[in-house]
Amino acid sequence: MRTRNFDIAVVGGGLVGAALAYGIAGGEVGAARVVMLDEGDHALRAARGNFGLIWVQGKGAHFPAYARWTLNSARRWPELAHRLHDDTGLDVGLSQRGGLHLCLSEQERVVRTKLVESDGGEGARLEMLDRAALRDVVPDLGPDVVAASFGRDDGHVNPLMLLRALHTGFAHLGGTLVVDAGVRSVSYARGIFTLTGTHTSVQAKRIVLAAGLGNAALAPQVGLVAPVTAQRGQIIVLERMPPLLPLPIETLRQTTDGTMLLGDSHEDVANTATSTGVLAAIANHALRALPRLAEARVMRCWAALRVLTSDGMPIYDASASAPGAFVATSHSGVTLAAVHALELAPQLAAGTLDPALTAFSGQRLRAAA
Amino acid sequence: MDSNATLPADCELAIVGAGAAGMAAAALAASLGVDTVLVDEQEAPGGAMYRGLTRATSLRISDADYTRGIELIDAIDTAKLRFSGATRVCGISCTSDGFDLCVASRGHAQIMRARAVVLATGAMERALPIPGAALAGVAYAGAMLCALKLGAGAPAGRVVLAGCGPLLYVAAKALRAAGAEVVALLDTLSVRHFVRALPQALTFMRSPYYASGAKLLREVNDNVPIYHDVEEFAALGNDKLASVRFRAGNRAVTLIADALVVHQGVVPDVQLAEMLGCALSWDDRVAAWVARVDVWGMSSIAGAFVAGDGAGVAGARAAEHRGRIAALGAASSLGHIDVGARDAAAEPHRHALSVAMRGRRFIDRVYLAPPRFRMPEGDTIVCGCENVSARQVIELARQGCAGPNQMKAYLRCGMGACQGRDCGLIVTELIAREQRVHPGRVGRFHARFPARPMSLAELASLPSTEADRAAVARMPGVDASST
């Protein structure tokens, strides 16, 4: 097995890894010295199960740094979309006209209203809409819908096109992609990291661990912590339909080509099988929101694993014992793609994290664990 | 037979597909006292081969094949089993003591538990990607034959057939019999093919297919202009087919046509087996995935049997015997017969199977669709559902795309209504060729639920537990969506 040398190696080709690799390759380091190590065709791939929301409302209510980071990313998304289009010719289908969170009972409305009132301290634009106001936006809502919160900064994007654009952009810039790398071990000696996988051996002066669930095992090998666990989410995709939903709803969105996506289940399960019981529950929930979907044809369903920390926030950290090793993980790979590519990547390329990101250190979870 | 019974919540043996294999398996299993449920997407049993046979014309019944079909249908009519027609098996999974089948019928869906299953889902037509395939007037021979069997009329105007394989000639004969004006048959195979397969030809001449096959070829040859060695063909027209252009050797020809019927063989339909997690292998001889089974037709998963063309295309006669052998295997694993009785009962079916399989190697070898028609180039559409071209797939494969599932994420190929049935083999073979890897290593699309069409209301009608509903009920204010 031949060992190849690079300046920076990004471990992980999902939405987080690809956004970072793309951002680094487009910066001053130059793409020629950057490698992205991806898994093979059967990887778990949270990136392929993403719902595609750029979501600000409700995030970081108790974690101001996260609220700021999220809002910043939503605001910088148009820049990322433009840059990807310039580099690849691909349109990721960005739409940021706001998003809705439906309340299907009076109790839900009360809880949501409280959240809306407490939120927004970081500049997010959030308000409650009553049923009458809501009907002007989405005319076909079911009778159970009593109200909704409306976040003006929310939006959506085609997550698969985003993944492809990041990979293609990275390739066009001249970055090296290794697939089926299966990195299992990382070692550090005299300023050089060695990454070893089933078919790969790569050396680099700096490494970024963005391996999703794989980070849990990789990070401790270089003095970092990434206590992430899997949470299964299932998604239903319906056939293409005429426009029904002008705005994405947190559990329901219509893509630009008319496809309807239904989702948002949470199970502490670490496999990617679908289960008919949960799918039925998702279907019932969606039919309460939008009864007109009853006769729509189900095209396919799938399950993917979210990469979650115990507090739901991302981890960004630099290793003290192995200088040059960084870790990045987040279950909001789409929402945060803009700050990952445009802000975090330059910091990683320069070798130091902005002090504003110290709030995201994995150390905060070590105490709790 | 308790016809179109309400599906039970439980049964011992669920048989999916009421073609030759499924019918034979069901009748035999029921006769051994196995509590058997047979389901099929069509209203009536028969499968593709014996479709519509209950209301067949006398002309059809005189044919030996069709007499076989009537016997099979009669056998399940009198058997003690439940048959549910117009029923789709949308999902299948393993449980601790058997299998859960997600079954949809007439606007309602349910879970049926079975201790053993026989997947007898048969074969499906191999896609034939050509320029203009989406034009109105272009149809597949298998679908056309099924429609004819159900009493549909032949297409009006000038009909051209193109592709390869015995079924193309069967279609030519059937279309002529139904009154169609068949103006040409474009065969993509070359005569050299037959020469290469000669070592297997002797066995083929002893097969039951030889006499009828030779007669069929003669009949079509005498009545339809046949062009061999067709290297390229395309359907032309605006929204509707107007002509067919083709090249054979140095000749380029354009034929005015109102209908183009294409075909290039059939391949096992392994979607449910794949969904269940049965081991599949890539069979180079037929350039397709085949379920791996033992001598009883049992897959890599205990209690899950694959019978008929799903375990390797061999035609209706072989399917019938493989169905019976699987039924014996299942009956024995369910404790209805002992191993000695099973082995003795299987003996005549094994003999009949070996007779029915004679010459199969020859047929596989001679009629394998040529690579250029399995792996298209340029703007030819690979995935008709999502309009993905061969060029796009090839480009990403060269960029190092990790495999069919990453390709699907990149291009959406295989995400459409057909669930990748049409483009799956093409994408696997294109990646294999571009990356110089064996197709068996490239792999295939993950099968996604539902395997068959289903409405959201049907999906919503499935049972869910308290825990399932709790997984979907959002805790207000908790942020855990994937964004």
Structure in words:
The complex is a heterodimer of chains A (369) and B (483). Helices cover 30% and strands 26% of the residues of chain A. Chain A has 369 residues and is of the alpha+beta class. Chain A folds into three domains: 192 residues, FAD/NAD(P)-binding domain (3-Layer(bba) Sandwich), CATH 3.50.50; 54 residues, no CATH class; 80 residues, D-Amino Acid Oxidase, Chain A, domain 2, CATH 3.30.9. In chain A, the strands form four sheets. In chain A, strands 1, 2, 8, 9, 10, 11, 16 and 17 form an eight-stranded mixed β-sheet that branches. Chain B is built from 19 helices and 23 strands. Chain B starts with a strand and ends in an 11-residue tail after the last helix. Chains A and B meet through strand 3, helix 3, helix 5, strand 12 and helix 7 of A and helix 15, strand 23, helix 18 and helix 19 of B. Strand 15 of chain A pairs antiparallel with strand 23 of chain B, so a sheet runs across the interface.
List the domain count of chain A as a whole number: 3
In terms of per-residue confidence, which ranges of chain B show pLDDT below 50 for 5 or more consecutive residues?
58-62, 476-480
Give the number of DSSP strands of chain A.
17
As residue ranges, the low-confidence spans of chain A are none
Helicity level of chain A: 25-40%
What would you report as the Rg of chain A, rounded to the nearest angstrom? 21 Å
Note the gap between the termini of chain A. 38 Å
What is the helix fraction of residues of chain B, given as a range? Answer: 25-40%
The name of the CATH superfamily of the largest domain in chain A reads FAD/NAD(P)-binding domain
Distance between the termini of chain B: 52 Å
Query: Could you state the CATH homologous superfamily of the largest domain in chain B?
Result: FAD/NAD(P)-binding domain
CATH architecture label name of the largest domain in chain A: 3-Layer(bba) Sandwich
Shape of chain A: globular
- Global outline of chain B: globular
CATH T-level topology of the largest domain in chain B: FAD/NAD(P)-binding domain
**CATH top-level class of the largest domain in chain A:** Alpha Beta
The run of helices and strands of chain A is EHEEHEHEHEEHEEEEHEEEHEEEHH
The level-1 CATH class of the largest domain in chain B: Alpha Beta
